[in-house]
Amino acid sequence: MASFVDEVTLTLESGHGGAGAVSFRREKYVPKGGPDGGDGGDGGNVIVRRRENVKTLSHLAGKSSLSAQRGRSGSGRNRHGADGRDLVLDLPPGSVVYDADTAESLADLAEQSSYVLLHGGRGGKGNTHFATSTHQTPRFAQEGLPGRRLRARIEIRLVADVGLVGLPNAGKSSLLSAVSNARPRVGSYPFTTTVPNLGVYRKDRLDVVIADIPGIIEGAAEGHGLGLRFLKHISRTAGLLYLIDLSNPDPVSDVHTLEREISAYGGGLESKPRLLVGNKLDIADPERVAAFRDAFPTDTVLTISVATHQGLRSLGDTLLEAVHGTGNERDT
Ligand SMILES: Nc1nc2c(ncn2[C@@H]2O[C@H](COP(=O)(O)OP(=O)(O)OP(=O)(O)O)[C@@H](O)[C@H]2O)c(=O)[nH]1
Ligand SMILES: [Mg+2]
User: Distance of CA 313 to CAs 175, 178, 305, 308, Å?
Assistant: First the structure.
């Protein structure tokens, strides 16, 4: 199984500028022509670019450094050296680039679709530029300027309104698939989801972006299961949807397990607004369902069945209301 790479650190370098040329015209009957040394090309830039179809940073994993191309030197007959090719890193939406040494954030692809992280060094000017009326045969040209170097840490943070949290097998991916355009893998075994998925629920031209992350288990804070590292992907969400399997022996204690693991993770997740949603109503014992509803009097509690679609509409309205402050505008 390919592992999900959501953080890399590597050294990036923009291209060195090409040198300007020292050259003089040589023509058959002109013994000593004027200067004709062309300029060096600029070094390539380092650019980061948002790409919707890129989901992970695995294409950068294991690389310790990447460089843009150098500018080529200029040459005689005023030929300009070619600019170095840019180094373009295609990153998933929501990637953030930091200076690894100062922790300063340099680019946030949730906000802008591309950034020039490092400009290439300027190419040097050829000797043509240095001829003057008193100095008609300049024997010097400029060197190109060096490129810049950065130790960069690139991190993915998914940008979602609502994060789905739940124990493995609760039906998170099934729910995302039922209410959104996303088609995550669904399986009747725990840890079907190993990489986060995003989907968009849309109604009345309003969007709610939902993130499905791998299941959380008891002890996740100590590294059990897939751990809690995926929780950072829901750190920017407006709220959390706790999805609980009502056919489990003790759905109420499942909520407490999630609460414990989420507060152990911290980072503000524990104080986000939450919506408690019991799933698999179609196969749950009605008494257990009632007990679940009663156990959380201060929460909004919904019960649904992704399998039969029961309750999905009112769940959608609740999400719209939570994210946009507008639900289903019904006459009362
Ligand atoms: N009976 C019933 N089964 C459901 C319902 N929703 C989901 N399932 C089943 O529950 C199993 C787990 O569903 P997933 O969507 O993969 O669960 P998940 O929470 O994403 O699981 P992980 O990715 O492993 O954390 C699958 O076999 C689904 O078909 C439901 O409403 N009723
Ligand atoms: Mg899943």
Answer: 12, 11, 11, 12
Is 168 close to ligand 1, i.e. is its CB under 6 Å away? Answer: yes
State the Cα–Cα distance between residues 92 and 103, nearest whole angstrom. 20
Q: Which of 1, 165, 174, 191 to mutate to test the pocket of ligand 1 (most atoms within 8 A of CB)?
A: 174
In DSSP terms, 98 is beta-bridged to: 105, 153
Per-residue pLDDT of 148-162, as tens digits, reads 999 999 988 766 889
Protein residue with least CA distance to atom 16, ligand 1: 186
The CB of 247 under 6 Å from ligand 1? The reply is no
Question: Where do the domains of the chain lie, and which CATH numbers do they carry?
Answer: 1-157 (2.70.210.12), 162-324 (3.40.50.300)
Taking the complete model, does pTM exceed 0.70, yes or no?
no
Identify the top-confidence range among 32-41, 79-88, 159-168: 79-88
